[in-house]
Amino acid sequence: MSKQVRVRFAPSPTGPLHIGGVRTALFNYLFAKKNNGVFFLRIEDTDQNRFVPGAEEYIMESLEWLGIAPDETIGKNEKFGPYKQSERKHLYKQYADELINSGNAYYAFDTAEALDLHRKQHEEQGKTFIYNWHNREKLDTSLVISAEETAKRIANGEDYVIRFKTPVDETLHLQDIIRGDVKFETNLLDDKVLFKSDGMPTYHLANIVDDHLMETSHVIRGEEWLPSMPLHILLYRAFGWEAPEFAHLPLILKPVGNGKLSKRDGDKLGFPVFPLEWTDASSIDKTVSSGYREKGFFPETVINFLALLGWNDGTEQELFSLEELVQKFDLNRVHKAGAKFDPEKNKWFNHQYLVKQNDADLAKAFAPIVAEKGFSTTLEMTKLEKIVSLIKERAHFVSEFWDLSDFFFVAPKSYDEKASKNWKEETPALMQELISVLGEITDFTSLNIETIVKDWMTKNEIGMGKVMQPFRLSLVGALKGPHLFDIVELIGKEETIQRIEKAITTL
RNA sequence: GGUCCCUUCGUCUAUCGGUUAGGACGCCAGGUUUUCAUCCUGGUAAGGGGGGUUCGAUUCCCCCAGGGACUACCA
User: Fold this and answer.
1) What CATH number did the domain enclosing A468 receive?
2) Domain of A175?
């Protein structure tokens, strides 16, 4: 029996979760569930300067809305808690010390200013400053001074960081589930800071320590982390720990132009990049970024579309429920190349799920909009459900419902110009006749009205278009919308006749 | 600049050496519909370039080009 699958999503709370992060979380979730494993959420807030209030809650709420909430996290099954790195602060120093003692790390006293200067000077000469084997003994480190001297400087309160002592002259062949064999020369790597002068670990140290302590079996993360895989593997080795398996996901790219989709893209591209609406409290004007939820996307849409960005099951199926995804997901079928986000196809997915929703739920979602227009009391829910069932095939979002159904609530205020051309000289007389036909119908239901009206037309040899077009124009104000007799039944005999009369006088 | 990753229709993708290179979104046309939408039918459109390996390459290898990521005491 192989060991239990435990995967994590480990965002830092520097703002709202963006769509690429959501995809990473989703793939972790799918992989965990597929393998009867555990999906946990860890908050990586080792950089106190970048902490954004509300971001942590936002992340949790987003995952919950999408239906991919973690099995373990802050306040939930805290088997390996705390799940927030700032609360694990006391843990990391001892591991940094362990690396110092084993000769895998060293103290460095260089100031940020000194390093900046080095970088600038190198740049001016067209060279790149890399803090590693070739210069670490020329810099201000514990490698070149005595242990006593080092201890003294630290005791004096001098600022220092702890850097990893990258091994020399090695070619690393690393295995990535998605990319296969990836090669790195250790001589080209730099000695990353593991422990900062503010007493906090960097991402690299905290991440490895926590993944080990939390018994992470697989690290599934974005491709932007691929360059730090050698460092991470080397760290596991230095600690003598078994490393988890790695899988680096392809990036989600902007739909137009180049580059990866980023938080800064906000609403500029005409679609949300965040699952939930987010108000930037730090901005002067309290900038609001739209969210999928508020825009009327269903969680199923977001899940389905994101799952297919970089993965497919090898068949031609495109509509998947979360359960199906769990069943079929396979990391080995994840793509290597980045994928451009296609807002059009995303909308198509939402239409698919909109049509699938049951009418009662849609009516419930539509009701507040109707109420806002001032029709709350005049309508019972069953009628609203009926309306929704008639129009949903024409919509991508619930927010489009009103424009597609306003004529159910209120008579047209104007008539579509182009359509009015169908209003000919003989039309008023015909409409007058239609009124009297309608007036005599007692069973005022769609099918019955249709039968009677069509009978009347055939008996009098009146062409369909001559009646139906003006009839629709009178009720709807344009040549669009659901089956006409369904509209007639819903608005009722009296209203129908009134609207025809109004059309006769107006047109 | 350096390191690493990637490369099939406009976009998302299938193809595990031999296919008329398939599907979906979009777009166009036709049909259904009194109308719009849905739906159905059809069409549009692709293996970056150059070398190899092979009887045969989209598929395997190399080079180039292009794109991307990373290159902080940020994650």
Assistant:
1) 1.10.10.350
2) 87-249
Residue with tokens 């103290």: A107
**Cβ count within 10 A of residue A349:** 22
Q: Are A507 and A404 in contact (CB under 8 A)?
A: no
Task: Provide ipTM, 2 decimals.
Answer: 0.95
Can A263 be counted among the known catalytic residues?
yes
Catalytic residue among A263, A347, A386, A502: A263
Q: How many CA atoms lie within 13 A of A400 on its CB side?
A: 12
In a domain, A165, yes or no: yes
- Domain final position from A249, A272, A302: A249
Residue entry with tokens 């007799």 = A485
Q: What is the pLDDT of residues A394-444, one digit of tens each?
A: 999 999 999 999 999 999 998 888 777 778 888 889 999 999 999 998 899
| Span A209-231, pLDDT tens digits | 999 999 999 999 999 999 999 99
What is the SS3 assignment for A260?
strand
Whether nucleic acid strand B comes within 7 Å of the CB of A489, the answer is no
| Residue A163 near residue A141, CB atoms below 8 Å | yes
A203 beta carbon to strand B: under 7 Å = yes
Q: Which nucleotides of B are covered by protein (CB under 7 A)?
A: 1-8, 10-15, 22-26, 33-38, 67-75
Is the same domain home to A113 and A244?
A: yes
